[in-house]
Design a protein that fits this description.
The chain is of the alpha+beta class and about 425 residues long. About 35% of the residues lie in helices and about 15% in strands. β9 and β10 form a beta hairpin. The radius of gyration is 36 Å and the shape is extended.
């Protein structure tokens, strides 16, 4: 859905800040159709974080007393409250239920048998009135959020609002933030201090659109796993082992002989040999999976990062638990008193409180985190220097990048040595 259309739900990100139109006069709707104001708002002037969403109760700050107040004259009996039905993110407008519900006469297309109708039927069709109720848009700054609606003078409203830090909500998979009422006006018992405002609940939960049976694939067929990838055990003893990436940072396969043989076979230039046919059948699912869902894609890298962090968190918990079990097995610091009373220690009369389970657990987890941080720094340093990990040797070895770095370093050293030799052999002639 385009950001120029009114929305009943706030999107997941901040895409409304980006202008999707080539100019401000593009995609104008006919005046008879219900649409937002034609006033174009520059992307830099659009509201970044929308704190008023569909379902909120608000009051009007502008307009006639008939629209704003309950007694249609002044605020002695309270303000009217309206429900936000839709929002227009690209024009900073909100649509309120009950505010100037205008009526537009929508013109429908003529029927296919219009020429065969009688004059009376044509006149009846041409004179018909198809009124559609539309809501007038109101600017975002001309409404004020209702904190407590008492249907009278006791209602309180948020006169100043702040937003919390933007974070990514993993459950809803969207950018989210907290809205905070910094100042509340109106009402007899107006609370003081910043207060967190809950978000309105949608009228009905959002459901993904169901596929069209005539055009789309049904869900039971779409979720069926039809691509079966071969395991690494089947590839390890073949020539395809060098073509399969072993880690996420591995470069793309440089050997294109098997793919060229497959293309030549399709064009009828050369038939596949038996070995090539087996390798093509083995590698084709891997090529397809790498093409359709790259291993370096954003989702896969995030998923790998998340899985590593989850595994690290489980290991941290296990390390703390094992440390507490070992501490209890050793007697819970029972020999601490005898050690402090020794003459060599010279702590006689000093009271030392034994450790608790929490302290033992936190000490073990802190040591585990320090070891992990040291290991990460070592890995990052080795990767930057061009080294690769060898499972056979069990240590880091120089890779192509490290060899290239060493070659450049040797070249610089040779240039420096030659320059120093020239300076040393330089003689001044009389």
């Amino acid at each position: 859905m385009s950001t120029a259309e009114p929305l009943s739900r706030i999107p997941r990100g901040l895409q409304h800040i980006i202008s999707t139109k080539p100019n401000k006069f593009a995609h104008k709707l006919p005046s008879r159709l219900p649409h937002a104001s034609n006033k174009f708002v520059q992307p830099r002037d659009r509201v970044r974080k929308w704190n008023i969403r569909p379902g909120d109760k608000v009051r009007l700050l502008v307009g006639t007393p008939k629209q704003k107040f309950i007694n249609q004259q002044d605020a002695t009996e309270g303000w009217k409250t309206f429900t936000v039905k839709q929002v227009d993110l690209s024009r900073n407008r909100v649509f309120l239920e009950g505010v100037n519900n205008n009526r537009s006469n929508v013109i429908h297309a003529r029927p296919s048998n219009y020429d065969n109708l009688t004059p009376n039927q044509k006149q009846s069709y041409d004179d018909q009135k198809n009124f559609v109720t539309t809501m007038r848009p109101v600017h975002y700054s001309n409404v004020q959020l209702c904190y407590d609606d008492q249907k009278g003078p006791g209602s309180s409203f948020v006169s100043r609002m702040k937003t919390g830090r933007t974070h990514f909500n993993v459950k809803s998979q969207r950018l989210d933030w907290n809205r905070i009422a910094a100042r509340i006006s109106g009402g007899s018992d107006t609370p003081s201090g910043p207060l967190s405002l809950p978000w309105p609940k949608p009228e009905k939960p959002y459901e993904l659109p169901k596929p069209d049976d005539d055009l789309d694939t049904s869900n039971n067929v779409a979720i069926r796993e039809t691509l079966v990838l071969p395991g690494l055990e089947a590839i390890g003893n073949t020539h395809a082992a060098d073509l399969v990436p072993q880690h996420i940072n591995a470069p793309s396969p440089s050997d294109t002989s098997f793919s060229d043989a497959y293309i030549n076979n399709l064009h009828g230039n050369r038939p596949l040999r038996k070995e090539e046919s087996e390798l093509v059948d083995l590698l084709m699912p891997l090529y397809l999976s790498n093409e359709l869902s790259p291993r370096f894609g954003k989702y896969k890298t995030y998923k790998a990062y998340k899985s590593r962090r989850e595994a690290e968190e489980l290991e941290r918990v296990e390390v703390g638990k094992l440390a507490v079990d070992e501490w209890e097995l050793m007697g819970r610091d029972k020999g601490l008193k005898e050690v402090t009373e020794l003459d060599e220690v010279a702590l006689e009369g000093v009271f030392i409180k034994p450790r608790t389970r929490k302290e033992v657990r936190e000490a073990a987890i802190t040591e585990f985190d320090l070891e992990n941080e040291t290991m990460r720094k070592e890995v990052n340093s080795n990767v930057r220097s061009g080294k690769i990990w060898s499972s056979e040797v069990g240590d880091w070895i120089d890779g192509p990048k490290a060899q290239n770095i060493a070659r450049k370093q040797d070249r610089r050293e040779r240039k420096t040595r030659r320059a120093e030799e020239k300076l040393a052999n330089l003689k001044l002639e009389a």
